[in-house]
# Entry
Amino acid sequence: MADQSTPEAAPQNSAQDSQKASPQASHKASPKASAPKEGLSRRRLLGTAGATGLVLGAAGGAVGYAAAPTGATPLTSLGSDRAMFHGKHQPGITDALQARGHLIAFDLAAGAGRKEAAALLRRWSATAERLMAGEAAAHDDTDVARDAGPSSLTITFGFGHSFFDRTGLQKQRPVALDPLPDFSSDQLDKARSNGDLWVQIGANDALVAFHALRAIQKDAGSAARIRWQMNGFNRSPGATAHPMTARNLMGQIDGTRNPKPTDADFDQRIFVPANGEPAWMANGSYAVVRRIRMLLDDWEKLSLAQQEEVIGRRKADGAPLSGGTETTAMDLEKTDSQGNPVIPINAHARITRPDQNGGAAMLRRPFSYHDGFDADGTPDAGLLFICWQADPLRGFVPVQRKLDRGDALSKYIRHEASGLFAVPGGAKKGEYVGQRLLEG
# Structure
């Protein structure tokens, strides 16, 4: 049977993250498409039992990551690469993967409300605009990024479910921000989940990324306190001899396919329409954030053949077990000499395909992480899974729910933190992010 997976992402460089050509490219509007037809009700979706697996992306399909680019960017050019702060959408969504990332969530301080939140977003937006242009912060710059260029820095802001209670804006809270259902494999640390405000920072230089993290934290001042913070990384630009899709910490090519801006239905799947509800979320998106621990000691005990059967793809080049190359369509009907499916029934690649999940798709943009070792030497490492969609109940939730029925990968991963955030559209020149919500 022909592979119905969502097409691969737009070309990127060998590190999946250096921004070439026009810096505005990542914010161009993609072709319009009609809204998807309603299927299952929201109540029915939320009421379904949870999933045991993780949409890791090594399988491709709706959860794949960027395809290989046409050419690598020389290391000497990395510092000059710049993403734009102002645009139709916020930066850090369709931009290429970056080598370093920080995720940080804040809760508004006691007594802080809508007025304080608006002032904070105004400060954050002004700082983001300056830092993304390679400039110093307006006040008390730490000089951490002195001598470096923008290095593809992106800073993205979002609002959690609790933000609307704290600011008295409950009537403006999107229905799509309803809490995610419980999943049976969750072992979530509430202290490292959710939050009033969420900030995603990415850059191709570690000092540039840290500089932005520190500036955002300082700007919070007395208005908000840090709830949790996580650090991630991806392969550095120029690290491979030729452009290729990135690998995750399991050694798998992590995501051959991803929705791409040139797809006719890209905006429909990833962004809230300009005439959508609520109005302040026009051209915005919803980010699901999951800290997924990979049980590497168990995974690494498997033979190469066993690992490939779990995923459904060859480890060396990401090609499906049914044959071909990384981008070859899967043949789910192909069998071996004994009549068994070449791609196992419970393979991650098979289960996560869009055509196996009612067409559900999301734009994945993750970071790997490593936070040291437990007392017994077990590595605390895995994936900071971040996916974007116009509605998580028609993107993330259906796929996770399907994984509950028997994903072979589920025994080698553990969900340890989770968050869902409404990320409004990009700020126009002279605006700050979230202004249409906070001053509407």
Remarks:
- Strands lie at 100-108, 154-159, 197-203, 224-233, 285-294, 363-364, 367-373, 379-389, 413-423.
- The two ends are 50 Å apart (CA to CA).
